[in-house]
Amino acid sequence: MIEQLQTLLGPSHVLTDLTCTDWRGRYSGKPLAVVRPANTEEVAAVVKLCASNHIAIVPQGGNTGLCGGATPSGGEVVVSLARLNRIRRIHHDHCIVEAGCTLAAVKEAAALQGRLFPLSLAAEGSAMIGGNLSTNAGGVQVLRYGNARELTLGLEVVLPDGRVWNGLRALRKDNTGVDLKQLFIGAEGTLGIITAAVLKLFPQPKNLVTAWVAVPNPAAALALLQRLSNVTAFELIGRMALDLVLKHVSAARDPLLDSPLWQVLIEADTTDLEEHLAAAMEAGEVTDAILAQSTAQSRTLWNLRESIPEAERAEGFAIKHDISIPLSRLPEFIARADTALSGKTIICFGHMGDGNLHYNVVTPLSHTDTINRLVYDLVHELGGSFSAEHGIGQLKRGELLHYKSEVEIDLMRTLKHAIDPQGTMNPGKVLTRMVTKPTPVT
Ligand code: FAD
Questions:
Q1: Ligand 1 site, residue 131, Cβ cutoff 6 A
Q2: pLDDT value, residue 442
Q3: DSSP assignment, residue 141?
Q4: Is 130 a pocket residue for ligand 1 (Cβ < 6 Å)?
Q5: CA–CA separation, 360 and 316 (whole Å)
Q6: Residues 99, 130: contact at Cβ < 8 Å?
Q7: DSSP letters spanning 180-226
């Protein structure tokens, strides 16, 4: 197998004797090989070879996923998309890019043409477009522009049998049957390997302003959000999350005095944010605020927000919950969960504008099941989701079975079986291992 892979790709692009570990260091596995194809044809050739030998495949982008989806469990071929990094074309309203382009590179290329690709997340320097689409990534601008699913017009995919589906259409309207691209977006590499995508581009905002605002509580933050217009980002940051950044990130400073318990980082494309903040202050929804006076100041504020995951990692173990809740019930969730977990340290922050919170609990690993049940049952009761933007991977397979209905699980399994009957495409991710087990590698 290794020799055949080397013949296909050249020996320097078939790496053996490696152990792969996920970003959080929770999962690791020793693959048969990590291969680095250079183009769609090479990806297809690798997949065909693996399929005919019943060898499982793990697609991998930037390896910044937070649920262990890109980590092998042992014996698979990891297909790294890193060398498929060409921007094939940029038009006014869309671009065609390969799966291994980093998100930052795509944004930069769009900006050079005076256009905006709005997907934004702290890991964008490493995360790749194929990974972004396969996890249906969200980030900080979903409120205004939508998540990865909504930003995608077309896809090119290598199917589990090695055929290539060319769906690189740049159409905003196309009602010609089932929208196949949506099957692969968010599938976490379990249905095929995305090799290229057509992405929507937007005008650059003209009046972007950034504000750091203290609010008395999450309900006040919600009232503030409802008063504002043209908001592109609305990030809630709890005291503990900010304190971790101040502790672990050198040169980080609290932008406001008096250490407020809750703050919101707001970005809006508007000229009237200051007026709205003044009115909110009179209404008691805001207690203090600063507006960035320059791009550098705005960057400093964003750095505080974007450093939270790294600061959490530096601090040590916490049970992470990436949840979404209908906006109107989000303050109720925080109040009830905080009460149920009183005495524990809670790191709470997230994309409040989308009803998406990272509600992380500092507690020993052995408490995971109890804490998860408490948090996720409350989320479920309030009509929310146990995975807002990070996906399922290996981490949340149990929750998927617990909270999705039998009909939903059955439909997911039926789709998986129809598209990947051998079960070789990223087995054991999203759904527990099923169908034909790949033959173990000897
Ligand atoms: P990987 O980790 O390599 O892979 C993720 C999954 O996609 C795996 O299942 C893998 O098999 C599959 N996959 C990868 N490439 C392909 C492909 N070409 N075809 C098919 N399947 C593929 N996520 C958010 O949504 N919002 C955030 O705000 C956010 N912030 C983050 C901040 C930090 C500091 C970190 C470390 C992560 C953050 N994430 C966030 C999570 C992560 O960055 C996203 O999930 C991202 O989309 C993963 O991209 P990747 O290229 O690293 O994918």
A1: yes
A2: 41
A3: T
A4: yes
A5: 12
A6: yes
A7: THHHHTTSTTSS-EEEEEEEE-EEPPSSEEEEEEEESSHHHHHHHHH
CA of 430 to the centre of ligand 1 (A): 14
CB distance 147 to ligand 1 below 6 Å: no
- Model pLDDT, residue 434: 54
| Cβ of 20 less than 6 Å from ligand 1 | no
Q: For helices 273-282 and 218-227, what crossing angle results, to 10°? A: 140
Backbone angles phi, psi at 185, to 5 degrees: -75, 125
Distance CA 135, CA 67 (A): 10
Please tell me if the CB atom of residue 188 comes closer than 6 angstroms to any atom of ligand 1.
Answer: yes
Which residues are within 8 A (CB) of 374 and not within 5 positions of it... i.e. 6 or more apart? 337, 340, 341
Reported as a single tens digit per residue, the pLDDT across 362-421 is 988 899 999 999 999 999 999 999 999 999 999 999 999 999 999 999 999 999 999 999
What is the residue type of 114?
G
Q: What backbone torsions phi and psi does residue 221 show, to the nearest 5 degrees?
A: -60, -40
Contact 263, 211 (CB under 8 A): no
Give, in order, the Cα–Cα distances in Å from 155 to each of 126, 143, 408.
21, 24, 25
What is the residue type of 147?
N
Q: How many CB atoms lie within 10 A of CB 27?
A: 19
The helix/strand/coil state of 142 is helix
363: left (phi over 0), alpha (psi -120 to 50) or beta: beta
**Burial group, residue 370, by CB count within 10 angstroms (0-12, 13-18, 19+):** exposed
**Residue 206 neighbours by CB distance under 10 Å:** 8
Q: Model-level pTM greater than 0.85? A: yes
As a whole number of angstroms, the distance between CA 155 and CA 181 comes to 6
Q: Which residues of the chain have pLDDT under 70?
A: 433-442
Could you tell me where the beta strands, DSSP code E, fall in 56-151?
A: 57-60, 77-80, 87-90, 94-98, 115-116
Question: Chain-centre distance of CA 366, in angstroms?
Answer: 26
Query: Quick check: 359 and 375 in contact, CB under 8 A?
Result: yes
What's the longest Cα–Cα distance across the chain? 72
| 340 SS3 class | helix
Nearest-atom number in ligand 1 for the CA of 23 is 36
User: Which of 37, 32, 31, 30 lies closest to 12, judged by CA?
Assistant: 37
Half-sphere exposure (Cβ direction) of 204: Cα atoms closer than 13 Å: 10
